[in-house]
Amino acid sequence: MFEVNDLVMYGATGVCRVTSIGRPDFAGDEDDKLYYFLEPLYQSGIIYAPVDNQKVVMRPIISAEGARDMLKNIDAIEGAKIVPGSMQHLSQQYQSLIESYSSECLLSLAKSIYRKNLEAEKNRKKLGQIDKRFMKKTEDLVFGEFAAALGEDREDIADYVHRHFGDA
Q1: Contact 116, 131 (CB under 8 A)
Q2: How far is CA 132 from CA 4, 72, 88, 104, 142, in A?
Q3: Range of the domain at 155
Q4: CATH number at residue 80
Q5: Is there a single domain that holds both residue 71 and residue 105?
Q6: Number of folded domains in the chain?
């Protein structure tokens, strides 16, 4: 069970702080379930997630040491293996990788799409809409998590990662 003030990754929302644990006002008298009150770090609002939730992945954020190690060894991280196919197939592959909610998997996917973008630019083309959408979603998740773990700004993490993606 998480504690108040813990930072967690909550599904596709990303990093959230547990602000409280209890019963929300909207819970009926017969609802005795406990809820995490989650405040997203990079969005506004409050999320009420049942403590016994099995539908949305909720895990602790990466440790500062884990984030530093992963960033230090970023050049060794391979890009995700994406099999070319239809737009629907590509979208399904990207979504499947995102739904792993693994920091390394997300960084690997970001690296693949970033390199795809560099290749497109070299050929004077633009990245497709599906690639752009999933690049943003992936980067929001991974850069937000690393920034929270290290107490850094997301843009600084993004700059560091992009510099290394471009070098490899």
Answers
A1: yes
A2: 35, 26, 14, 20, 15
A3: 62-167
A4: 1.20.58.1290
A5: yes
A6: 2
Helix (H) or strand (E) holding 49: strand 47-50
Q: Which of 120, 59, 118, 112 is CA-nearest to residue 81?
A: 112
Return d(Cα 82, Cα 138) in angstroms, integer. Answer: 15
CB burial of 110-138 (b: ≥16 within 10 Å; e: otherwise) equals bbbbbebbeeeeeeeeebeeebeebbebb
Query: Collapsing DSSP states into helix, strand and coil, what is residue 105?
Result: helix
Is residue 1 assigned to a domain? no
> What whole-number distance in Å separates Cα of residue 73 and Cα of residue 161?
11
pLDDT tens by residue, 17-39 = 999 999 888 766 667 889 999 99
Q: What is the pLDDT of residues 48-94, one digit of tens each?
A: 999 998 899 999 999 999 999 999 998 888 888 888 788 899 899 99
Say if residue 15 is in the same domain as residue 88.
no
Tokens of 21: 């644990």
If one counts every other C-beta atom within 10 angstroms of the C-beta of residue 151, the result is 7
Distance between CA 29 and CA 20 in Å, rounded? 19
